[in-house]
Design goal:
Layout lengths: L7 H21 L3 H30 L5 H23 L7 H20 L5 H7 L4 H22 L20 H14 L1
Helix pairs in contact: 1-2, 1-4, 1-6, 2-3, 2-6, 3-4
Bound molecules: fe (ii) ion (2 copies).
One fe (ii) ion binds next to α3 and α4.
């Protein structure tokens, strides 16, 4: 069955609803297998969604909508990718696994609100600027297909950031490690 043709905003909003639904399902899920499957779906959806926005929709918005809004969206994506990467490799029995999924869902909720806000949201501004939504929708739908096929074939790759430049972080595994982390943080100042 051919997928329904959606304009850019309808396509992105449909993605948002889908991932919200997956987060809700994860929250009430029982059993490691079910949770792992849902976490995998969440990571796949968010990877594809952030990629099509960053490759197609956000560049189309550049110069047409408020600059701060766009810059913050990129940074929010990169922030979410930190947890995405954690969840992709994380072990389901880990003490913080559910918390990571929950915090990711909260970050995404905030981000989606910024995109969909009726007045002055990114989509509202893009619409007011007269972006070619049908064309952008077609391009994103095609890219989405490609990305899903790639993930199916090779699995999820480590998320790639566009604004984070790889500031060093240390994993605190104990009291000694804590000192090292503090020293590293001070050295950065
Ligand atoms: Fe989005
Ligand atoms: Fe976004």
């Amino acid at each position: 069955m051919a997928a329904k043709r959606l304009d850019a905003i309808a396509l992105l909003k449909a993605d948002h609803r889908k991932v919200e639904d997956l987060f809700a399902k994860f929250e009430s899920a029982k059993g490691a297998d079910r949770k792992a499957k849902l976490a995998q779906e969440i990571c796949t959806e968010l990877t594809v969604h952030t990629t099509i926005e960053e490759e197609i929709f956000y560049p189309a918005c550049k110069g047409k909508i408020e600059e701060d809004l766009l810059a913050e969206a990129y940074v929010e994506h990169d922030g979410a990718k930190v947890l995405l990467g954690e969840i992709e490799v994380g072990n389901l029995d880990g003490e913080f696994y559910d918390a990571k999924v929950k915090v990711l869902s909260e970050q995404i909720k905030h981000h989606v609100k910024e995109e969909e806000r009726r007045a002055e949201g990114m989509f509202a501004e893009a619409k007011a600027a007269g972006l070619p939504m049908d064309d952008l929708g077609d391009r994103m739908a095609a890219r989405k297909k490609e990305l899903l096929a790639e993930i199916k074939k090779s699995g999820l790759q480590a998320p790639q950031t566009r604004t984070f430049i790889g500031s060093p972080l240390k994993h605190n595994t104990g009291a000694g490690a804590k000192d090292t982390a503090i020293v590293a943080a001070m050295a950065l100042r």
